[in-house]
Amino acid sequence: MDWGGPSFVIAIVALSTAGWLINNWIRAKHGYSLEDEWGGKTERSDSAETKRLREENRELHDKLDSMQDRMIVLEKIVTDRGYSLSDEIEALRDRDTGTGVPLDIKTSEKA
Fold it and tell me: How many angstroms separate the Cα of 95 from the Cα of each of 18, 34, 102?
């Protein structure tokens, strides 16, 4: 490799540019201020829309968490009590003595 040739200089410039891009990408990903072309810092500005969207995102996450909790409870009810609930309904139908509201849907009260 020719250390004084133009290909070496181009390789150094390409590596420096790639390093700068990767550095700024990592900084942006983690919320740090970014460097501009002259080495100065560019601070992130939070606009009103950004703050509103963050608040909405937080509310949606809270709602999703509560819905997941409710889903867990419903799954427990369905899986734990599913068969015994139908057995209890059948037991009530067998116990019907003719008083009160009829348990047979096809039979209706006459006014």
Answer: 81, 76, 11
The closest of 59, 54, 58, 29 to 44, measured between CA atoms, is: 29
Q: What is the pLDDT of residue 60?
A: 96
Helices (H), 1-111: 6-29, 48-95
pLDDT at residue number 107: 53
- CA–centroid distance for 102 within its chain: 47
Q: How many residues does the chain have?
A: 111
Q: Which residues of 53-75 are buried (b: 16+ CB within 10 A; e: fewer)?
A: eeeeeeeeeeeeeeeeeeeeeee
Assign 105 to helix, strand or coil: coil
Summarize pLDDT for 25-74 with one digit per residue, the tens. Answer: 888 887 777 766 666 666 666 678 888 888 999 999 999 999 999 998 88
Question: Identity (one letter) of the amino acid at 39?
Answer: G
Positive or negative, the CA dihedral 86, 90, 95, 101 is positive
